[in-house]
């Protein structure tokens, strides 16, 4: 091996991150547009915040305040201020709302879309950068705003093609959990660990959560996660709360009342009762349900919390059944904006995990097909590049994506290029066609289909399936007709 090989930079993707190609990006774009349209129908308006915030603005929910880079990606600015890549889209909204409080309408109804970053251990389906799409109502103290978020989440999933019965939007209340933790004797220091343990119920099951409530758990890789340190009695109280769901909302609420009697959790049960009534009257009770297993892992939630969960099963590559589980969630965070203002600032919001939901839509066959590339115009005569560029412009002026081949290879290689570009059509004009004022247009999709049926090469050469020669002025008309037929 030469020294130059030793010094060559290795191309490698950072752990926990992913490259995304045109087909996936097109599917994301279509899905995001549907979410945007739904949110706007409900009266929410767009807002964009930066990727980077001051670390202290992200709030007390960070995994470890003494280590700013634990859980988030952080660095110090030249003035020694800690900056962090945003952990979610809620904390930046809280900063924006506090900073612009006097000029924004209240309630302030807004949506945001973009990447968020988590400095956590990557694994299958767990990335350090992923997309979220949030909607929030700031300045509304009534839990009717929370009920509205859940109903809008249900509408959004159905607009995306997930049918009723394939999902459920589940609601709980942090005040109820606080009451249960009070009954169980959970200390302030233990609360966040307990929250995060319960939040892993769908992934780890009851036994895994019980370990995290106690001494801790070792995962499949051998890594150990320290537990909350609860004794068996306290753990059983917490698990009884998680399992309090009954067949009807009324029975679930009755079970919760028994668990939180004489604690501050009674206020949470009252709020859930009001939400359940609103949802039933609005006609959403079959898909928006009360479920005590929902807690959400972030510490800043102060009241109702909710999750959108997919309930259908699909098979993986090995034929094993898998469930996608939660694809979004949120809740009430009345204290997050108040940190900046020193006065009450009620707020609630819902966040969709775009990447996870897109994977679920793909499993249902609703994520869209492979995105076609542009029409490729072959360069048959190097000295006629300007003619080919003019042809591409004619197609673009007609709103048909087009490019000319910019390489230096011959016709066969150019056709292979068009195939790799997923081009629907190739345009060919040699000197003979130019002299006759004609252009040859090849339907590449039809050509592929016909090639499966024609085995004799001579017959293939003679028939030239999907290929026509027309006058130059019919270029746009013919290309558009071919593309329309393919669709």
From TrEMBL:
Alphabetized GO MF terms: ATP binding; histidine-tRNA ligase activity
SUPFAM superfamilies (UniProt xref): Class II aaRS ABD-related, Class II aaRS and biotin synthetases
EC main group: ligase
Enzyme Commission number: 6.1.1.21
Catalytic activity from the UniProt record: tRNA(His) + L-histidine + ATP = L-histidyl-tRNA(His) + AMP + diphosphate + H(+)
Cellular location(s): Cytoplasm
Keywords: Aminoacyl-tRNA synthetase, ATP-binding, Cytoplasm, Ligase, Nucleotide-binding, Protein biosynthesis
Gene Ontology terms: cellular component: cytoplasm
An individual GO BP term: histidyl-tRNA aminoacylation
Domain of life: Bacteria
Location of the Aminoacyl-transfer RNA synthetases class-II family profile domain: 31-372
Residues that hold L-histidine according to the record: 88-90, 118, 132, 136, 296, 300-301
Family membership: Belongs to the class-II aminoacyl-tRNA synthetase family.
NCBIfam families reported in the protein's UniProt record: hisS
Complex and partners: Homodimer.
Protein name: Histidine--tRNA ligase
Gene name per UniProt: hisS
């Amino acid at each position: 091996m030469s020294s130059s090989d030793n010094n060559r930079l290795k191309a490698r993707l950072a752990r926990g991150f992913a490259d995304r190609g045109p087909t996936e990006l097109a599917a994301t774009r279509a899905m995001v547009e549907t979410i945007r349209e739904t949110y706007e129908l409900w009266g929410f308006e767009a807002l964009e915040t930066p990727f980077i915030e001051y670390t202290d603005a992200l709030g007390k929910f960070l995994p470890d305040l003494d280590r700013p880079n634990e859980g988030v990606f952080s660095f110090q600015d030249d003035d020694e201020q800690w900056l962090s890549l945003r952990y979610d889209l809620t904390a930046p909204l809280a900063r924006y709302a506090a900073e612009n409080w006097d000029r924004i309408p209240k309630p302030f109804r807004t949506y945001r879309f973009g990447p968020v970053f988590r400095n956590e251990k990557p694994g299958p389906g767990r990335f350090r950068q992923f997309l979220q799409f949030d909607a929030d109502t700031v300045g509304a103290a009534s839990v009717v705003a929370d009920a509205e978020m859940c109903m809008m989440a249900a509408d959004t999933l159905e607009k995306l093609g997930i049918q009723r019965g394939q999902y459920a939007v589940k609601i709980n209340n942090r005040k109820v959990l606080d009451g249960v933790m009070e009954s169980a004797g959970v200390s302030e220091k233990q609360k966040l660990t307990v929250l995060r343990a319960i939040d892993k119920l769908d992934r780890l099951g009851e036994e895994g959560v019980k370990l995290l409530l106690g001494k801790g758990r070792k995962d499949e890789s051998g890594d150990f996660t320290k537990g909350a340190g609860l004794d068996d009695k306290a753990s059983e109280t917490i698990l009884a709360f998680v399992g309090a769901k009954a067949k009807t909302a009324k029975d679930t609420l009755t079970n919760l009342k028994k668990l939180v009697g004489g604690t501050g959790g009674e206020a949470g049960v009252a709020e859930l009762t009001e939400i359940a009534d609103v949802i039933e009257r609005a006609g959403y009770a079959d898909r928006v349900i009360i479920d005590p297993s929902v807690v959400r892992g972030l510490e800043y939630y102060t009241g109702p919390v909710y999750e959108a969960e997919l309930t259908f099963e699909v098979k993986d590559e090995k034929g094993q059944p898998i469930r996608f589980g939660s694809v979004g969630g949120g809740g009430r965070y009345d204290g997050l904006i108040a940190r900046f203002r020193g006065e009450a600032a009620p707020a609630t919001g819902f966040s969709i995990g775009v990447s996870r939901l897109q994977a679920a839509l793909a499993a249902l066959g609703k994520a869209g097909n492979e995105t076609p590339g542009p029409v490729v115009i072959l360069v048959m005569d190097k000295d006629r590049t300007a003619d080919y560029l003019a042809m591409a412009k004619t197609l673009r002026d007609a709103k048909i994506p087009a490019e000319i081949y910019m390489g230096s290879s011959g016709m066969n290689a150019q056709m292979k290029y068009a195939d790799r570009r997923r081009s629907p059509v190739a345009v060919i004009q040699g000197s003979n066609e130019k002299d006759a004022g004609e252009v040859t247009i090849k339907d590449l999709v039809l050509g592929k289909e016909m090639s499966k049926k024609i085995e004799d090469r001579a017959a293939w050469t003679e028939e030239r399936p999907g290929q026509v020669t027309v006058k130059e002025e019919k270029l746009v008309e013919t290309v558009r007709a071919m593309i329309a037929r393919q669709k």
